[in-house]
Specification:
alpha+beta, 2 domains, five-stranded antiparallel β-sheet, 9 helices, 18% strand, flat
Amino acid sequence: MKKELLTAPVRVLMILCAAALAMVLFVPLWQIELNAPQYPEGLNLLIYPSKLGGNVDIINGLNHYIGMKTLHTKDFIEFTALPYIIVFFALLAVIVAVTGKQSMLYTFFILFVCFGVLAMVDFWRWEYNYGHDLNPDAAIIVPGMAYQPPLIGFKQLLNFGAYSIPDIGGWLFIGVGLITAVCIWLNWKENKNRIIHLSTPVMLVLAILFFSSCSNGPIPIKPGADNCYFCKMTISDIRYGAEIVTKKGRVYKFDDSYCLLSWLKTKEIAETDIKNTYLTNFNNNHQLLNASEALILQSKDLRGPMGGNLAACKEPDSLKKIQEQFSGTEVRWNEISKQ
């Protein structure tokens, strides 16, 4: 029995995957951004397939004081092997497209996923050793403190905020995996019904929807554990808490709206970099509410921990209950934030 070959749209998509993997060789795969008051513009560690880039020398100088090892491209065997692995997958994607064999498509996908998992495990292992293997004779030693950067997302390391996220090459890798999964699904549909129900434009829309769904939202405030980013005090009364999420997904937590507004005035972050601002619901389970949509009561009787004197809620009935206990004026966030 003659084996069915891959359809033309699937072959075209695999050629696109090969081209994307070729581009990965020339752009950063990952970035770790460090922010601190003394470095308002931030420091970047860029990880390319064959080298380290960004502010490596400055980061090495800072890490020396806390006993962390300096970073050098020659110390990583991964930078020798990774370019060849990427070329291998690019050529394999071309072979899939040219031969049109279904077995080659499945082989590519399985190998690609396994490589992605192993790469992330290796990256975590490096971060762990980098943050825990410290020089005992360092100038600054904090007992019990480790400096392991986050695998992905944000983490506070002393006065530095570390933000780890895929760079252009990393997103290309994720895109290749997603497109290959779509190719497999299309091939399955073709074998089952012999009719292709999705066109290439629809597949691209699905990819766009996938990436847009990966956006980060607020992170719940943990009283007694989280500290205010501005005043550094432990957040104890969650009713007055506030939070900012940047467009990159970094989260800043505050014990009071006063601290949030005071920090914004320092211009440490540009207003255009802010994705959303949140206020804690004064009632119920104290979930975070989008400040622009929240109903806010301003009252001197509220006595917030830093004098913010704001109480946010979601429903009009909840606002009335707060007003019965604390006399004040209903305000909107855009009015307060401009003061």
